[in-house]
Amino acid sequence: MISVKNITKVFTDPDGGKNKVLDGVSLEVDQGEKIVIIGPSGSGKSTFLRCLNLLERPDSGDIFLDGERITDPKIDIDRIRRRMGMVFQSFNLFKNLTVMQNLTLAPLKLKIMKEEEVRRKAMELLDRVNLAEKADVFPASLSGGQQQRIAICRSLCMNPEVMLFDEPTSALDPEMVGEVLDVMKKLAEDGMTMVVVTHEMGFAREVATRVLFMDGGNIAEENTPDIFFTNPRTARLKDFLSSVL
Amino acid sequence: MNFQEQFHTAFIAENRWKLYINGLGVTLTVAFFAGLLGILLGTVLALMKLSESEKGKFNIWNFLATAYVDIIRGTPSVLQLLIMWFIIMASSRNPVFVAVLSFGLNSAAYVSEIVRAGILAVGKGQMEAGRSLGLSKGMTMTYVILPQAVKNIIPPMGNEFITLLKETAIVGYVSMTDLTRAANKVSAATYEPFMPLIGAAVIYFIIIKVLTLALAALERRLRKSDLR
Ligand SMILES: Nc1ncnc2c1ncn2[C@@H]1O[C@H](COP(=O)(O)OP(=O)(O)O)[C@@H](O)[C@H]1O
Ligand SMILES: [Mg+2]
Question: Which residues of B touch A47 (CB under 8 A)?
Fold first, then answer.
């Protein structure tokens, strides 16, 4: 479904130095797969994820979505992004809009659904995360866990084929992590294709079809979760796992 | 002369009050339309400054806007008015129009900085969230970024307008009769400077005080709606 071929990304530091953040990363994601990416801070996980929906443009290499080369400069990026949901560490709900408006803005403005239809879908989604009664409040009055569940609903309202998660629980108080992970687990059970950057090893074990270890701009190791956690091959991964587990 | 006589000489005799009223009219007209022009052009300049260039490429919009703001901020506004009056618009028969143009072009430079800062303060996560849903940059600007930026922009914009209102007093340099020049004329004609000058100062003060209070009330309302 998604096919990443040898992408690189270099950032220029303020002092002019070159920082090679992605050093030729390749990955195949099949329909329905749940890929979990772990790795130390600064290893390029976010950058990689943001390249998938072209929030960052790779400097070289290609990305294909169902065979279509989305790194082609001539392609309509907005049309591609409609098919990929993204959930951010800091939720990024639209602060000037109510919860309902947050969910319906894109489907309505992009004329994907009729107003009635999109409102019904939005209510269904909110109901599924037990926040239907919050439809008409503004994001600022909600807890972090509630905001993140709504951010997930906002993405789902576009009927995406893939969902990208960038450390969705890292900004949450510990008691709210569970409610967000539960929503993500349900989504996984429903068959959504997911790419998740997280430090939640329990989630990785339980949900992932494959776990990737990212280090220094490369995928240093990759395996099914049982082997990945019980039998890490590289010393780097062993060190990393012993430091987080 | 006692107070009453002075007052009479300054405001009542020879229908002098009409001079102040007409002057005030010029002051408010110039300030209002220059403010409007400043907001429109200033917003365009801000968007030009915020436009992104493709990596490493020269951004002509950004360059033009930056140069414009630099030039306006680097020269006295009296001089800008004189240049507009005697050089650029020398053939115009409409003094108010020339003044509006000069003050509006001047104000736009300051407004552009206010708008730019207001947009930048919104935080890039909001734009990224919009783009990740497939909304275009323009749509995200229109429905998400600008509505939030307005809240950051209104307070400093009010201050800019107050500055502009006072600065219009320099139209006397090009022999237009605004409130300040009206007072000056009366003081010259009567050899009694106290009443006309203090009177004009009081009128400016009252108008600006009312504006300031209205602005503060608006700010309170905006803050409240932040916490809804
Ligand atoms: N927009 C950017 N400009 C410059 N450097 C960046 C930018 N985004 C990320 N980086 C740098 O790239 C490196 C990898 O960042 P990131 O992908 O966020 O790592 P991770 O998500 O694994 O912590 C870091 O050194 C970071 O400072
Ligand atoms: Mg990150």
Answer: none
